[in-house]
Amino acid sequence: MASPSSSSSSMVTERRGIPGAQFVEEVQTYLTQLGLDVNSALAFLQERLQQYKLVEMKLLAQQRDLQAKIPDIEKCLDVVATLQAKKGTGEALVTDFEVSEGIYSRACIEDSDSVCLWLGANVMLEYSCEEATALLQKNLDNAKASLEVLVADLQFLRDQVTITQVTIARVYNWDVHQRRTQQAAAATKDS
């Protein structure tokens, strides 16, 4: 099947692998240029719409993950800042930490020059408080930047979904109008 990629309508763009939808101003020209009949065009547009919905689900899942990750990083930054503030005061930091799900233990943290950070994949590394702060701040900045890009991608994707839905409606309505015109012409011819 031909790929509806060129038309006299509007410029089709792409954003980070998400193909742009084109708004079809003149349905007859659109179908003629692509060499498609109405049913093939509608099938292609419905398939593209489903692809957009699938991509949207994936992007929304990534957005949820980032939105959960950012507060965790901020919390870690706060903990490291608290440890640094308590350092040198001679005052111990008393805190509760989760040992296992629902099981907590109390700890007394004396002056410490380093912290251990989970990096993922069951990897934990020890960093100085300054290095940990720098790493966490970099991760926080990266997560916020990724979230901004993701939000822009979702907005672009929603625009493409809307354009595709409008195009489907225009092609369908054009087909209904053509059939009615043909039926009316046949009825007047028979009379």
From TrEMBL:
- For the keyword Chaperone, the answer is yes
Q: Name one GO cellular component term.
A: cytoplasm
Q: Give the UniProt record's GO annotations in the biological process aspect.
A: microtubule-based process; protein folding; response to cold; tubulin complex assembly
InterPro entries hit by this protein: PFD3, Prefoldin, Prefoldin_subunit_alpha
Q: Does the keyword Transmembrane helix apply?
A: no
For this UniProt record, the keywords arranged alphabetically read as follows: Chaperone
Q: Which CDD domains match?
A: Prefoldin_3
SUPFAM superfamilies (alphabetical): Prefoldin
Q: Single GO molecular-function term?
A: tubulin binding
> What's this protein's family per the entry?
Belongs to the prefoldin subunit alpha family.
Q: What does this protein do?
A: Binds specifically to cytosolic chaperonin (c-CPN) and transfers target proteins to it. Binds to nascent polypeptide chain and promotes folding in an environment in which there are many competing pathways for nonnative proteins.
- PANTHER family in UniProt: PREFOLDIN SUBUNIT 3 (PTHR12409)
Assembly and partners are described as: Heterohexamer of two PFD-alpha type and four PFD-beta type subunits.
Protein name, as recorded? Prefoldin subunit 3
Q: Which species?
A: Carpinus fangiana
